[in-house]
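Re: the 243-residue chain
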Amino acid sequence: MEYRKTLYENYHTTQSGRASTTDAKTLFLREKWRFQHEILPLFSQLDKNSKIYDMGCGSGSLIASLKENGFNHVLGIDLSQEQVQTAHNMGVNEVQFGDAIEHLKHNTQPYDVIVGTDIIEHFTKNELVELLQLIQKNLKPNGKAIFRTPNLDAPFASVFANGDFTHENYMNASSAQQVMMACGFPVVNVLPSMLQVQNPIKELIRKALYLCLKFFFKAVIFATGRSLQNILFTPNMIIVAQK
């Protein structure tokens, strides 16, 4: 039996919603808030009529954020029936049950943007290369692919990288640029993910601690004779690849 069938069937219960002590709606709103601050700024120059595909969209919190910002041509597909039902419960009816990759294989109308948050780490290296080439073919000229994925250069990277049994591959900024370019994306930018928390007092403390830790980790890298170029320290990284 392939493990994916067992783990993805109830993915929300066993993984995405398991760590939360709050109800599904509160978790959905928290995810939406993060997307509004982390991913939506990448859409600021995009036409509101742009066609967007959110693959492996989960509960649809990113789609909800996009809709609130005037993007109405959005489709999301997820392999977990439980996630799809959660999305519908939250009023995100643009989410459909199905295989996100099979959709790309049979799609005839290219997209302006294809988004994959917390998804590309779920594929083996062979599968990922095939997927990226498929995404590239499904984008319009100058179209963009946007991904969020664990950053292996981050301190305690294993917290994110190994916190999900279904993760298959890990990258840092350098290897992310390498594979994206090899798969047909000539312009690739890798950005740090958002670290902000909602509580303002906790955010002030977090900022101060992060500045100290970042200085320390830079000193460690310098002391080992390695370059600081293209190294990110955030647990996740955002990849923006343009066709």
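The longest strand covers residues 139-150.
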